[in-house]
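To: structure desk
From: M.T.
Subject: fold request, one chain
Message: Could you run this one when you get a chance? Sequence is below, nothing fancy, just the single chain.
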Amino acid sequence: MRARGLRLALGRAALLTLLGASQACQASAQGRQLDINYATTSGIGSTTGASVTLPHGRYTFFTYADPPNCLQSVALLDHQGKPVGDDATQRVATVPASFPSGFPTTTANSLSMQMVPTFVQQELQSGVYRLKVSAGSVGCAWEVEQILNSVLSNETPPKPIVPPSAPDVNVFLDNSSADLHFRIPTAGMYEVRWSVTPCAKYSGDLIRSNGGTVHLGDGTAAAMPPGSFVGPQTSDTPAFLGAGDWTAHMATMCFWQLQVTPQRGPNGGGTQGFSR
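Reply: Done. Structure tokens follow.
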């Protein structure tokens, strides 16, 4: 009987130790900067996502669109269907769907306008939420990285996502390329490296079939003294590319090169590319 009582006592002690360790782990997460990417949602067109339970904390949502001006709004709805965060007003001001007469229309589709933060370090109470995405066209591709920056309670934070494996994409095109088509099998973040040696007027775009146009950049060569050398102008930009068939459109007689490869690993602040 004594041996049995000793075993029960030891069992209780071990259980209490485990419970104490679990509580300490939860408490240690409270208030700390976590930057957990607990969900990365991508799609085409308008949609409302499934319900997800979130702890009381601060959150940042990074939203990417292809083409950059195709989204109308990204909102987070509470259990009553009311938006607790909506970037519609910010999106209109940042990436307007149309511009005044005479304004370069390529600006609306510039790579630099692809990402709009839906909200940054916004406090959300613990509860059930759903993501609602409103697109301006059926071919609008998008991605929302949902980051838990910090927990403001003793609730257990969600687990980080496991990034998908990087697809086999290694695009290299230049002036000598007879075929300027390439395929992106999986929507996600890619490294887009575009270089051009200014010799005259130049402009570059990436066009997705049944999608839209992403503008790489444009410019005009400046007048230089005879014998001067002008090196290539290079843009190395992370870009969200929707899945599908793409075409590089380069309106220039100048020398240019284009490289597209998957972006791999963490990118800071909880953002995440494909797995390494």
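Reply (cont.): Residues 128 and 232 are 51 Å apart (CA to CA). Let me know if you need anything else for the meeting.
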